[in-house]
């Protein structure tokens, strides 16, 4: 990463790795510090860590299941939902309970069943009533670790947290200790990014988001403005409930999300706010043929008759209602899809969607999950190295500040400089703004600006709108042209301040591309000598 204003984060991980290694050489004789620095180094090689947070019953576990595409997180209000739970990729399903002193115990997993052998609406349950600890005496459970074979978890470790507004202060405190910086918590932030679920936007949400984004206390010495969470995306969860389950519920939720985004953007607390019907998203990801068949039967019922039956969940599942789908299966559909999901599925079938796979794809798209995946890919997955390095640098700043008086002191100014270079964060905030409001620029220029700041991917060719096979010389020419164009746009006398800043951000991104698209060596291979010469 360059020291000047045009650096955009390229090469950040190798430099961070080098700083951590230098700190280990200087502080390695201190066992506790050595362990913290070793954890920093390991973190750079592990999957990105994303935490799910929000108030009680915000739908965190349901959204986790939807993102993974499997029924692995308990969604009923049991003891396990009051614990921090880590979901990682593993070779076989396994759930382990951990105590504060590191003792562990295997957890029994039970799976509920729904009507006619279908998956139950409550999914898995973790039984914590009979734990067998690998220690002499019983322990109190501190957190759970779930290992599950999953392509999604191979790329991202997901941390499910208890609700911040729980009746129990201790339950809420577990989330605060995990995600808010400063205090006696670990030097290394447990999460690299946060997915914050909103049902409404009240003082508790704003307060917690401010604490997530705040820097550590002054005693750590890390820069206050730059050592909080670099990536926070808001989700208007249970979006179908905003419109009372009507067929146009997500349109209402999108309006609410836009309002939340506007309010949060003024404070810089979230990079995006996306409406998602989590229950529908998970049901779509796990749609079974028997459920599709039931929807087809319901679609054959006259519209007025079915509309009357769907006035409430209790009415729809009542055994006295004369419908071709059994009452038990109707109750199952209500629990799995909600009234909104049932109405939407029936409407799609009436409009010509055929087959369970096609219906699942349509439901997933309309649930908002696909849009959320796109945002997570652009803002988290494609920037995983930057986010992980930010976590490691934040920890390194705290460690160096807490252990002065060694050769490692000379590293702290460079660590602070790297933390202060927030161009990647500027890109994320501008991308969020472009999602809801358009700049007064021509459509082609808006598309180019979106590409340059990483809106379609962070690879140089994606940013420049070129083929992946484009030669370096052409890429350099395109990047230089972009620098000149967007610098000139930023200086336009009629550009308002925000537009000028956006153009300047694009120019800095293009300058960063020039940094990495440097000339290759003119003699890539050493000259060969003949034997004996």
Task: Describe the protein's topology.
Blueprint: H1 12-27, H2 31-43, E1 48-54, H3 60-68, E2 84-89, E3 94-98, E4 104-113, E5 119-133, E6 143-148, H4 151-155, E7 156-160, H5 169-179, E8 193-198, H6 203-213, E9 231-236, H7 249-265, E10 272-275, H8 278-285, H9 289-299, H10 303-309, H11 313-317, H12 327-350, H13 356-367, H14 369-379, H15 384-402, H16 412-420, H17 423-436, H18 443-452, H19 460-464, H20 472-490, H21 497-516
Parallel strand pairs: 1-7, 1-8, 2-6, 8-9, 9-10
Antiparallel strand pairs: 2-7, 3-4, 3-6, 4-5
Q: What would you note in describing this structure?
A:
The structure is a single chain. The chain has 533 residues and is α/β, with parallel strands linked by helices. Helix content is 48%, strand content 13%. The protein has 21 helices and 10 strands. The protein has helices at residues 12-27, 31-43, 60-68, 151-155, 169-179, 203-213, 249-265, 278-285, 289-299, 303-309, 313-317, 327-350, 356-367, 369-379, 384-402, 412-420, 423-436, 443-452, 460-464, 472-490, 497-516; strands at residues 48-54, 84-89, 94-98, 104-113, 119-133, 143-148, 156-160, 193-198, 231-236, 272-275. Strands 5-4-3-6-2-7-1-8-9-10 form a 10-stranded mixed sheet, sandwiched between helices. A hairpin with a 5-residue loop joins strand 4 (104-113) and strand 5. Helix 2 runs antiparallel to helix 15 and helix 9 (289-299) packs across helix 12 (327-350). It is globular and about 75 Å long. The two termini are 43 Å apart. Mean pLDDT is 81; it is low at 1-8, 216-227 and 521-533.
